[in-house]
């Protein structure tokens, strides 16, 4: 409490009264002076704001048991750029700390950890992206880029289909429209590029945040991190009752919809992988009957990938904007809309694969999938990869001795 009283005194001394703000001085600038930050590495305004708020939270520690962010915070006395990006990607934006915080606006400390962390996460995706120009473009115009990309790719695929997408039924044989070799080459190359770009970006991120902890990696730490990723532990709000969405009421809907989306995506990926094995190892070519493993996996995954993103979009539209970063909404919604389009066109393609509409539906579906692959490293999908890396670091460092007495922070 002595530290909080000291911080309050600094705030009152350094912050100008509202009525005496001079020309050119904004409220944001006034608040930024409450706790001066002198980082070792230069930080931008968003990063500096997170460091400021973490200093306040480190003195209070009321939210210490809420999620992985606050225990990791207590291991630090200062917050440099690497620390800020690490903590920002640990944050799941559940909102619990905001509604519990006595220093949230309109308090003069103006602590809003979910919003501050969200702004830095957006910086993470573009700062570590490879190539960086693609990340900057997508983060500014996510929905436009995604939908325009899907349309352009659809038109290109239409041309590849000899200029016609209305043909006599081909018995559900997709390769009668687009040869297998052409599809494998196109999608394999784009997916490989997306994986490479993600790998380069996450490697850059890990090298910056993992200093001093990488040597402590263990099977137990990896297992804990994997569990937290797969179970979405911290979307439970730190108490298991869920996140805050439109108000301060708890709900597990975001966790449930995330599970449907994630596991639906993985089932669809498994369906494609099994079909690849069928084709190359067993010489079994598509189309496969409905009760075959690839179709069952794809259908189940497609349903999950329809319900999950629809629910996430509904929650996104209802979410209290105070706790988020409005700049990210185009990027967030672009990813959700692409997943919805992929699942909807995929299920429609399965239902009407024996009709004359099959070629049209196939081109639409493939165009959406290609657009998703092209934007994977630069949009919302990346948050799962960066968060997994942050959770691994958290699991590693909690098994290491403290470098300072946490009671002295």
- Domains, number: 2
What's the total count of β strands?
Answer: 2
- What's the gyration radius in Å? 24 Å
Proportion of beta-strand residues: under 5%
The low-confidence runs, each spanning 5 or more residues with pLDDT under 50, are 11-39
Number of H- or I-type helical stretches: 16
Protein name: Tricarballylate utilization protein TcuB
InterPro entries: Citrate_utilization_prot_B, NarG-like_sf
Keywords: Membrane, Transmembrane, Transmembrane helix
Transmembrane segments: 143-163, 183-202, 260-281, 293-315, 335-352, 358-378
Structure description:
This protein is mainly alpha-helical. Strand 1 and strand 2 form a beta hairpin. The chain is elongated and about 70 Å long. Keywords: Membrane, Transmembrane, Transmembrane helix. This is Tricarballylate utilization protein TcuB. InterPro entries: Citrate_utilization_prot_B, NarG-like_sf.
Features:
elongated; NarG-like_sf; single chain; mainly alpha; transmembrane; 2 domains; 409 residues; transmembrane helix; 2 strands; two-stranded antiparallel sheet; Citrate_utilization_prot_B; Tricarballylate utilization protein TcuB
């Amino acid at each position: 409490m002595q530290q909080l009283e000291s911080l309050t005194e600094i705030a009152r001394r350094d912050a100008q009264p509202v009525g005496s703000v001079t020309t050119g001085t904004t409220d944001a600038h006034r608040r930024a002076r409450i706790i001066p930050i002198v980082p070792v590495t230069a930080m931008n305004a968003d990063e500096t704001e997170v460091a400021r708020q973490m200093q306040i939270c480190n003195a209070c520690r009321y939210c210490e048991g809420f999620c992985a962010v606050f225990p990791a915070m207590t291991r630090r006395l200062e917050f440099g750029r690497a620390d800020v990006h690490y903590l920002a990607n640990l944050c799941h934006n559940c909102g619990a700390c905001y509604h519990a915080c006595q220093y949230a606006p309109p308090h003069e400390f103006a602590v809003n950890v979910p919003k501050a962390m969200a702004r830095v996460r957006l910086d993470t995706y573009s700062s570590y992206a490879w190539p960086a120009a693609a990340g900057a473009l997508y983060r500014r115009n996510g929905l436009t880029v995604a939908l325009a990309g899907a349309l352009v790719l659809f038109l290109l695929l239409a041309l590849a289909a000899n200029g016609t997408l209305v043909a006599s039924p081909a018995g559900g044989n997709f390769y009668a429209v687009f040869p297998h070799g052409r599809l494998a080459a196109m999608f394999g190359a784009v997916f490989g590029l997306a994986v490479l770009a993600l790998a380069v970006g996450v490697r850059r991120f890990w090298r910056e945040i993992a200093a001093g902890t990488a040597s402590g990696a263990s099977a137990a730490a990896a297992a804990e991190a994997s569990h937290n990723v797969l179970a979405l532990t911290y979307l439970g709000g730190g108490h298991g009752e869920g996140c805050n969405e439109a108000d301060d009421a708890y709900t597990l809907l975001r966790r449930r919809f995330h599970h449907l989306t994630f596991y639906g995506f993985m089932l669809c990926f498994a369906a494609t992988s099994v079909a690849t094995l069928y084709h190359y190892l067993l010489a079994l070519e598509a189309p496969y009957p409905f009760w075959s493993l690839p179709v069952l996996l794809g259908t189940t995954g497609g349903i999950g990938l329809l319900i999950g993103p629809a629910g996430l979009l509904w929650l996104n539209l209802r979410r209290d904007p105070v706790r988020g970063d409005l700049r990210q909404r185009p990027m967030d919604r672009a990813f959700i809309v692409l997943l919805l389009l992929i699942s909807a066109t995929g299920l429609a393609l399965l239902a009407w694969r024996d009709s004359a509409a099959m070629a049209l539906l196939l081109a639409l579906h493939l165009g959406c999938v290609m657009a998703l692959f092209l934007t994977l490293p630069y949009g919302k999908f990346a948050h799962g990869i960066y968060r997994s890396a942050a959770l691994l670091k958290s699991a590693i460092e909690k098994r290491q001795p403290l470098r300072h007495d946490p009671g002295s922070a």
